[in-house]
């Protein structure tokens, strides 16, 4: 770059130079005029999507076909017991299936385990379905189930264990797992633990074939064997995962599709363009800013979409052990000054829903939609914020560092908060670090404000206890409120939902008003599909249950 | 337009006004507004200043390091020449952007690091062209005479050789400036250039790229500005080239 | 034989350059302020197994020449280390091999289109010089050439993906699987790069043609009638094209830089986007591997073009500088 051929041989220099300058000016003027003129004429206004795809109106289930799903990032690991990335679950859902599952109302329903008795402070007794097999033919019997739990609990030969063993803490409530007979497993917990079943609906309930693991523990992570509706074919890192139909799946007739292909497409706008152009059939997660485009696509009848709050919450933590946030009034000043509604309108384009605590609307009856931490919420109350500053002894405000991801959208979010806070005299400095460092800083309590959210779990305990109990493993803000501790402890020890609801609602009131965390919205689960893709259930855990999907 | 800057246009590029977010170009906001309602015209002016600042300083960096190296190599000849030119060859062995990326990867993100990265890539060109002119000139009689008379070599280089090289240097400056602006834009588009809130034009394009469907003005106007900024030095260079050596043609 | 000596000398200097480049790429990791392993994996809490492997692969703790020799030895055999952030435990050479077809396809498509279109346009401009067409071509090529490569890509997406929905704007399907879809996905990325490279080729072809044609006209001043003009035209063309090949080859450097950006804009899973992701995530083994790969390709192509140029162009003496 930087060299160009000159044409000086064919004309005199001054003429040519003049012509060039005129040309340059001309180009610029014409260009500007074209752009403005085009705008005026409406040439540049985007038209609603008019992609033609095959019109469908069949109501009966058709088998066969390939479903191509575009997801937000590449799979990290193929071993469900070693996975700490939520995106992996999209693939695991098809490959491994579930021990037990949840439905649209977040109720626990049978899967590989056909039924169970659920007594309080007595062991759980699971009865397995007949005839379920792993893809390599091994029977999914009680011994196989015990193998899996032993693997997660770290009780097997070290070379058979998952690396790293991410599920270990999830199953730490288990005391013993015993094989009663080939179809019955008895799991005893150390103490009564209400969320136990909900944990088994996720990766802790995804079973791997003992035969495959024992035969080749290292190779297993490249050639996984599960019991789900689809079998593993290949994984080209960064490009796609291919899964083929499992003809021996335990639900008769399912799965309907022949093949599932999962493609990582990191950029959400590209993902949307991919489905609009027909390259993929189904996308998981879209950019909030594309919502109007999606609505107009759906209006053409060629697409469908859904967006619901997930179990996950987002916002930012305030370190209660570090100035200025060791002062409760300083935290509350931030709470009152942040305008959640403006965040929803500006950043999420109205897509996301506000939350008043770590429990989201996806948690059903546990969520209390009537609770507001202050009167004007979800709008801001600058006067209240200034009052809180007075009470904090910092009438002219204070400054603090806010750590967030280095992405463009996160910076814009930070700039929005910056302007909201500066209206009441609080100066927020934006510090951007990549995700690994944020986690490290958060875990080491090395922050004042830190943007960290969580993908959440079906049971409200998992959201509230781990983050806001004084001994909670994610409680990086070091929030310590004995009343809250009490409430949360009680709530996880009883399995009666009607008893648990008021406990959580009370705990949430205390947590939110104490403001060790400023809650914004629930992470949305948004999906778009081509209109010939049917049978999708938008279950709030965000996984795509492919066994019920068919294409017409 | 860009260099006149805030003296003429007094809108604050940082004022958030979310009610007016992603507004198309209009009489108040010539380039429209961004996601937080900030005026893109004001942001682009600021961004343009930063782009030009980084690019210009980078080229000066290349020049300040490359010209002396070329002088020394061309005048000293022999082993010194070989060594210097070999090092230049090695720098040139890297494709331009890739080398800048490597430097930023090592040093981290920041305005000064971007300058070092871009500047480093541009050193060999200056060294080479200066050296080739020096080689030609040092054969000339008056330089031979000065050498024979025992004048200090640095004095010879500065007083006799440098003035003759200056026209070539000026020409190369414009060409390198065009290249530097493009490299800087590439770095900041990838998120590796000047960090917020003082992004350059490439950084604004990066911000606007996800909104191409809903708000095309966000990414397009800054991009047009970058193009205009590159066209300037390119035209200037072409004109200068004709001025300086009308017999010169073709590219090498 | 002068020719053999020339080739041997070029190869010797090639090997030197490759060694120096490898050394620079390898040693750059050591220039990171602070401890490289901490910088890459984060301050604490990283997996000690991965950290130990990284330390070994980077040759930290050993004297520099020994460490470099070890790294080079492994690299020559094809072991470029393992990714630590992007795709843990995947070998870098696997990642590179997976992504190579994408980048190669983009590069080849671009070069072919740039040369063909550039030469055609240059010939047309030469034949119609100083007409409006000539000026239009000049201005258009200068403008597209002055645009940053990502901006060309963005404009193409705006017009051909969003407004006129001819081409999709992202993603990739293997050519072997589905050639039609592959080409529609590669069309815009290749075009955005072509428009940049074309400019120089067009202008050079134009001036080269003009020069060649004028020479012929002067020596055959009595040329009359169409057939003779055609002969002159063909002869001029042949002469004019020789240096064009080398100009095209020299554009390869710009191509490499452009490929990195274009793959990012269009979401193509090639080596360029791997490099960028590696930098953003600070996965140094990936950065080293991708940089090395791209640079070595660049050096090899340049050397080949250089030697070709010296051999083909009768005006250049072999052994001259």
Q: In the CATH hierarchy, what is the class of chain B?
A: Mainly Alpha
Major beta sheet, strand line-up of chain A:
8-9-10-1-11-16-12-15-13-14
Which segments of chain B are poorly predicted (pLDDT under 50) over 5 or more consecutive residues? 1-5, 248-252
**Nearest-integer average pLDDT of chain B:** 84
Q: Give the class of chain B from helix and strand content and strand pairing.
A: mainly alpha
**Annotation field: number of helices of chain A:** 16
If you compute it from the alpha carbons, what radius of gyration of chain B comes out, rounded to the nearest whole angstrom? 22 Å
Structural class of chain A: alpha+beta
Following the backbone from N to C, one meets helices and strands of chain B in this order, namely: HHHHHHHH
Characterize the structure shown.
In chain A, 31% of the residues lie in helices and 19% in strands. With 552 residues, chain A is an alpha+beta fold. Chain A has a ten-stranded mixed sheet with strand order 8-9-10-1-11-16-12-15-13-14, sandwiched between helices. Chain A has a four-stranded antiparallel sheet with strand order 4-5-7-6, with helices on one face. Chain B is mainly alpha-helical and 252 residues long. Chain B has a single domain, classed as MetI-like fold (Orthogonal Bundle), CATH 1.10.3720. In chain B, helix 3 (96-107) packs across helix 4, helix 4 (111-137) packs antiparallel against helix 6 (153-189) and helix 7 runs antiparallel to helix 8. Chain B is elongated and about 75 Å long. Residues 1-5 and 248-252 of chain B have low confidence and may be disordered. Chain C is mostly helical and 321 residues long. Chain C is built from twelve helices and no strands. In chain C, helix 5 (92-127) packs across helix 10 and helix 7 packs across helix 8. Chain C is globular and about 75 Å long. The model of chain C has no long low-confidence stretch (mean pLDDT 78). Chains in contact: A-B, A-C, B-C. At the A-C interface, helix 1, helix 7 and helix 13 of A face helix 5, helix 6, helix 7, helix 8 and helix 10 of C.
